[in-house]
Amino acid sequence: MERLPDWLKTDTFGGLRKTKRLLRQNRLSTVCEEARCPNRGHCFSRPTATFMILGKDCTRSCGFCSVSHVRPSPVDRDEPLRVAHAAKEMGLSHVVITSVTRDDLPDGGAAHFAATVKAVRDMLPNAKIEVLTPDFKGSLNALYAVLSSAPDVFNHNVETVPSLYYKVRPQADYQVSLKVLAAAREYSSNVRVKSGLMVGFGERFDEVIAVLRDLRASGCNFITIGQYLRPRKANIAVVEYVPPAVFDLYKAEAVAMGFEAVAAAPLVRSSMDADQMLQADL
What we know:
This protein is an alpha/beta fold. The chain has helices spanning 16-25, 31-34, 40-44, 79-89, 110-123, 140-147, 165-168, 174-187, 205-217, 244-257, 274-281, and strands at 29-30, 50-53, 94-99, 128-132, 153-155, 192-199, 222-227, 261-264.
């Protein structure tokens, strides 16, 4: 195991058991667990969680991700209602919904996303809802199906700089991700558009700044930047543990570009404290 610098160590695990029990009772998955997020103790103890719909198995094999990439199971039509029930039991005021990538489905799972947003909205009419979607292979019809359910935040992560896509996101395309984000911005002025990336893959500082400019030009309101941590030996190795001071520089640059909310620190994750990012903008 790689030795972590002190600024990446965390020991907040209170509340894990109760939240995990509730999730198992509702037969639900979270990206917090499946992606081995280091902040799951922090989030589960609040409690909050990022619900991962459309199964546990992804049709893509990104180099950074520990989510299984075997043949996916059929879509569970009852899942949206179970997500809504769990969100209500947890007393959530901000619900984050993400998914594995389902390139095997004609719409990439967009209709299932929309159904889940509707179920949560029906059960928790005052809650804010954030979706974190795959790129749907650039399909605007799929994107619009999700956006028609009126989430408060639309999130799609670019993950890394273009020069490293070949090893970090080999089945994705940087320009397609920018297209999705720009189309979300054009679809509605009410939705907040969000994206995120990780550092530590070997990218240069100027490459990260260029991505920030691209995201801002695409209409992104919110940005998250965090340190990549290798979840399993099978995943790509960490090239660098980026010091906190560099994250401060990234944040200053992003604020200067006009992003309305910026989260940049080693342990920042795309969905961590997502409610606070929205509140900071309102």
